[in-house]
Amino acid sequence: MRLKLNGITIYITESYEEMSKKTASIVLAQVTIKPNSILGLATGGTPIGLYKEMVYGYKSNGVDFSQVKTFNLDEYFPIKKDNEQSYAYYMNEKLFNHINISSENIHIPNGENVNTKEECESYNEQIYSCGGIDLQVLGIGNNGHIGFNEPDVSFEARTHLVNLDQETIEANARFFESEEEVPRQAISMGIGNIMHSRKILLIASGKSKANIISKTLFGDISPNVPASILQLHNDVTVVLDQEAAEEILQREELQEYIR
Ligand code: PGA
Questions:
Q1: Which of 13, 99, 171, 251 fits 19 for a cystine, CB–CB 3.0-4.6 Å?
Q2: Is residue 241 part of a domain?
Q3: Residue 188, domain member (yes or no)
Q4: Dist. CA 19–CA 237, nearest whole Å
Q5: b/e 42-66 (16+ beta carbons within 10 angstroms → b)
Q6: What are 102-132's pLDDT values in tens digits?
Q7: Measuring CA to CA, how many Å separate 216 from each of 9, 118, 144, 208, 231?
Q8: 231 C-alpha to center of ligand 1: Å?
Q9: pLDDT tens track for 90-103
């Protein structure tokens, strides 16, 4: 099902697999139309299927990533790049090792640089000097974070060092041996960077995201729900699976489309 509401296009798919395929078709079309696209990428559980489909697009359909540049949203701090829980490691494993992207075109905040101020400034500068992000992929946290922009965020912020919320630490503990091992800080693009992307692609899967998706798309625009600022962006596509769409499908605003 496809709905269009105030500049936001929403696709509701049957399953996680379909959500991943739909999202990949949008990303792969972007790369096909503009081979030197600047892609903003996300980590976490949600985009794993997307990356699998992108690898398939490269291996089976010859989609060419040789001119593509990427900027990841965030990285834990401090963390070594070879730590299996680092986002640098994740991206290599899930995507970069399997497509023909050049290593110099890959950008991820460096969680090893103790001079975080310098790291953040240089990340902003690199995004700027590439001409900005064409298509930014976003997951969403249960608390409405995008990147690691936690509730009470400043909507203007660029790349910065953030203290992770307890809820985020608990949600991400599933990837670590124990909760104590989850780094307490991260370097994250700010909402300012995200909102300057030309296109945004937000993906969510599963029941646990149903409430925050409803607040993001239909609630007040508030720093308490960082993703709600996306209502003010003029080119947002949201791809959901059935479970993540559960609450929005109940909303009055959508009934005329559903009937
Ligand atoms: P998830 O994380 O994809 O693992 O649910 C999303 C996020 O926290 O941004």
A1: 13
A2: yes
A3: yes
A4: 12
A5: bbbebbbbbbbbbbebbeeeebebe
A6: 999 999 999 999 999 999 999 999 999 999 9
A7: 14, 32, 7, 14, 8
A8: 20
A9: 999 999 999 999 99
At CA 247, angle to CA 54 and CA 238, rounded to 5? 30
Q: Which atom of ligand 1 is nearest to the CA of 42?
A: 9
Between CA 17 and CA 34 the distance in angstroms is 26
Name the domain count of the chain: 1
Residue nearest to atom 8 of ligand 1 (CA): 141
CA atoms of 183 and 150, how far apart (whole Å): 15
Ligand 1 atom having least distance to the Cα of 140? 9
Domain range holding 154? 2-250
In 3-state terms the chain splits into helix, strand, coil percentages (rounded to 5) of 40, 20, 40
| Ligand 1 pocket list (CB less than 6 A) | 44-46, 139-141
Q: Is residue 40 a part of any domain in this protein? A: yes
- Give 163-200 pLDDT, tens digit per residue: 999 999 999 999 999 999 999 999 999 999 999 999 99
Active site residues: 74, 143, 145, 150
> Distance, CA 256 to ligand 1 centroid (Å)?
31
Distances (CA, A) of 133 to 51, 217, 248: 18, 22, 29
Ligand 1 atom at minimum distance from 168 CA? 8
Quote the tokens at residue 13.
């798919």
* Pocket probe mutation, ligand 1, options 19, 85, 94, 140, max atoms within 8 Å of Cβ: 140
CATH assignment of the domain containing 106: 3.40.50.1360
Exposure letters 194-203 (e unless 16+ CB within 10 A, then b): bebbbbbbbb
